[in-house]
Amino acid sequence: MNSLLPTYGPRTIEIAQASGSYVTDVSGNTYLDFVMGIAVCGTGHRHPYVQQKIEEQLNRVWHTSNLYMISGQQRVAEKLTKGTHLTHAFFCNSGTEANEAAFKLVRKWTKKTKIVTFTQSFHGRTFAMLGATGQDKVKQGFGPMVNDFIHAPFNDMEALNLIDKETSAVWLEIVQGEGGVVVANQSWLQALQEKADEYDVKIVVDEVQTGIARTGTRFAFEQTPLQPHIVTLAKGLGSGIPVGAMLTTTEATEIFGPGSHGSTFGGNPLAMAAAEATLDILFTPTSLQHVKDMGDYLKKGLTQFVDGERFIEVRGLGLMVGLVSSEPVAEWVTQLAETGLLVVMAGPHVIRFLPSLRVTKSEINEALMKLEQILQKEGVV
Ligand SMILES: Cc1ncc(COP(=O)(O)O)c(C=O)c1O
């Protein structure tokens, strides 16, 4: 009997070993991993420096709770905020928790309950974040949602008129990840910033998927005109060790004082060791340039498959890339795994590529070859 609640669909692959861009399953099959735990292992699997720092921490102390000082939190907060307008961090364990912290902060800060969010967004699965998420499929069967959230069409200028003096916050992803790798337009973001300024509305940028160098800058908002009051992070922050964070500005220290929010595990020493090592590797100009270069290389390589019929478009930022099809892509994703390439869907029509941020040209070539093999077999190319 299967003793697990069937919240996930059937899973046929169990990964037993992982290193860099490659994983091996329990039967000994090796795969080139362009999923990376869904944009989590940005440094690649088991990066030796991250592993060393985690092992050193394992030999000191694992857990203390936030009753005691954890100096790693201060160091990680500084590394995350340095060179930005953001000044303070709160640590938690996942993306949905980081967003939940942002929701509580915005409620207390603005004392208003109207938040403008966008269709096809994904913000997590706590109750408030189900309300925030702009996809009905995650809400079915759960009854009334937290109803602060209004869902406007993404990249739609007219929709910005929903931002008014009753609005507490506007909440968005710069690249909608689960929603299909949809990149926000610069002119739309400029207009959004102006509307938010006009009505003194907080801007919350969910960088759970786009953050920690995934798009070629430390945070995706750095490539936009946005000056968010709150940025949420998780996924890539710990290279695979669970950790989330909410970043905000000095003003918020007045709102989130002692007792207003907390977490038993949030910012634990092990997570902080992993996060600090991850940032040391990924937040360097060379490393960020590598993400941009490899992102361009991958996009260019995928463009050869765009025929205007079966494949319509390649889109994304940095190493968050989607190949958009006119047809459902589930079968391609299964076939690619069978040829040894792991990719993940972003909605029914988009094949999403989320390789290690240290991926090499030859690994990208290998992925493109595997894709070509499958398409040739199907008579597509
Ligand atoms: C943009 C975004 N926000 C929030 C979440 C939720 O993060 P978690 O699964 O760590 O709770 C995700 C997860 O895919 C995400 O992509």
UniProtKB/TrEMBL annotation:
InterPro entries, A to Z: AcOrn/SuccOrn_fam, Aminotrans_3, Aminotrans_3_PPA_site, Class-III_PLP-dep_AT, PyrdxlP-dep_Trfase, PyrdxlP-dep_Trfase_major, PyrdxlP-dep_Trfase_small
Cofactor: pyridoxal 5'-phosphate
Pathway listed: Amino-acid biosynthesis
Annotated Gene3D superfamilies: Aspartate Aminotransferase, domain 1, Type I PLP-dependent aspartate aminotransferase-like (Major domain)
MF (Gene Ontology): N2-acetyl-L-ornithine:2-oxoglutarate 5-aminotransferase activity
Assigned EC number: 2.6.1.11
Top class in the EC scheme: transferase
Pfam families associated with the record: Aminotran_3
Top-level taxonomic group: Bacteria
SUPFAM superfamilies: PLP-dependent transferases
TM regions (residue ranges): none
Keywords: Amino-acid biosynthesis, Aminotransferase, Pyridoxal phosphate, Transferase
PANTHER family (UniProt xref): ACETYLORNITHINE AMINOTRANSFERASE, MITOCHONDRIAL, AMINOTRANSFERASE CLASS III
Family: Belongs to the class-III pyridoxal-phosphate-dependent aminotransferase family.
Entry protein name: Acetylornithine transaminase
Origin organism lineage: Bacteria, Bacillati, Bacillota, Bacilli, Bacillales
